[in-house]
Amino acid sequence: MDTPTKTLTFETRLDLIHEQDAALCQYAELWNQVKFRWFANLQKPKAQQLNRTQFMHEMGMPFSYRVFQGVQQSIKGLIQSYQTNRNNRLVTLDVKIKQLEKTLNKLNKRCDHVAEKGCPQQAKQLRNRLRQKEVKLRRWQQKQSALVAEKQENKTPICFGGRKLLKERQALETGSAIEGWKQRWHEARHREFLLVGSHDESWGCQNAQLSPSEQDDAYQLKLLVPHQLRATFGTTINIDCLKFKHGKAAIAQAVWQNQVKKLDKSIKGQPLSFRFKRDKKGWRLLVSVEVAGPTEQAEWIDDDQGVIGVDVNPDHLAVVELDRNGNPLQHRTFDLPLHYKNDAQRAAIIGDAVRDLMDFAAQQSKAVVIEKLDFQQKKRQYQKHDHPQYARILNAFAYGKIKDLIETQSIKRGIHLYHVNPAYTSLLGRMKYRDRHGFSDHHAAALVIGRRHYGFKEKPPKQLIGINAKGTVKTEHPPVRMALGDYQYYHKLQHWYRPLEKSLDFLSGWRHFRRVNRVSYSVEARLDGRPGMSPDLIQESTPLLSAHPAL
Length: 551
What we know:
Elements lengths: L5 E8 L4 H25 L9 H8 L5 H53 L2 H33 L10 H6 L6 H15 L2 E4 L12 E5 L6 E6 L5 H4 L2 E7 L5 H16 L8 E8 L2 E10 L15 E6 L3 E7 L5 E8 L7 H22 L2 E5 L3 H7 L6 H8 L3 H15 L3 E4 L4 H9 L7 H13 L10 E4 L5 E4 L9 H17 L6 H19 L7 H13 L4
Parallel strand pairs: 8-11, 11-12
Antiparallel strand pairs: 1-7, 2-6, 3-4, 4-5, 6-7, 8-9, 9-10, 13-14
Helix pairs in contact: 1-3, 3-4, 3-10, 9-12, 13-14, 16-17
């Protein structure tokens, strides 16, 4: 198996003198000017866009090719982030519109029913409520149409500096307030720059070289100044005594590998990328390192002894431990109370839950298996739940953040992470394992996820046995598989099972088996003189037991 890799970012605060601070500010201003011009160039039609050489010649060659790569990667990341958020917004609007259309249909029927009964006051209230819902529906549909048109035209309207700060300008009237706003606007637009590294460059990056310092666990950074600024600030900026609170092992490994590469050219270096970012307290340095192995232990934990199946949900992580043969051993639940929390609180809650999950996996010495899903698929999976409380939970759902943290922690701890096809895991879990093992729907899905990693094929039971309120046994047979493929058959099975599951008088087979076994045990206990069921309950249970086809 190929060793998984992950790019991790660690930060530290820079302690600078006045000249160094001014140099970084000028560097950021020049770098962002190129960034804005390059973004404007990409918004033109492809026939009118300039290539890198033409663009740099037009700008007067302010940067080298390696520095310009940082500009390109920054713009590429912004565009991809905007497009991903736009797709997520389209998914959210689609879910909201469908739910609101269902609500409008119910209100229309209720209005007609109340009008027929002759209740004018109640009918007026319902019509007002219906009118408000229709206005909201039109507003959401307009937003959806605008986003779809923007996506078709391939537009990315990004505001450098932030739309919130830009709107503040409209409310300002005095000259002093406008001048203060201009200063804040300039700082917001020129507060960071990115320098990209490569494995074939000295110390992993040509323009910012991180090397060991004389102090223990400290580094020194030599920053190459652009040609336009060298007359004022010199050729390089030397920043000493850099210490990282987190990621010491990963950074030390990368610096050592780049140091050895200078002596032995056959050794491949470790690329280091540097992002300088300014906030209210000053400048921060973020170093990105590519980690290809565990930093907290020597050996990888694989799936030899079993796996940990994980089903990611909006409010919790459903976890099931399996042995090598696919049998469940124990199950856990790690809560994710993300509602009514800000971004920092949600990040902390998700980090704690993922840490507990990885502690459990490391304790059991087993690999982790999750679904191979993106946010849109996961959100569509839960759109059937039409409840205000569930909608609020789903709004705070950070599936991408959870998935990314699991991948990061798995590499840092040396726990192999596997992805499986998520198709019909919930359906098979409900039909086969939910009542057999006393699991919830989500833990049953986690069990199917873990078993799918080993290639076990899940076949639906030959018959499902339910019981109604009168005690009558009801048997349902799934459709015949015939010559259909697995997923074609599961798709057909889902349409058959969904209305059956919603019927109030139907319970899945293993829940009924557990009930029958409990009744028969209580009858035997009563006959043996031990505490058991009352005689009336025994008489009521006798026809049920005799009617069961398995008895």
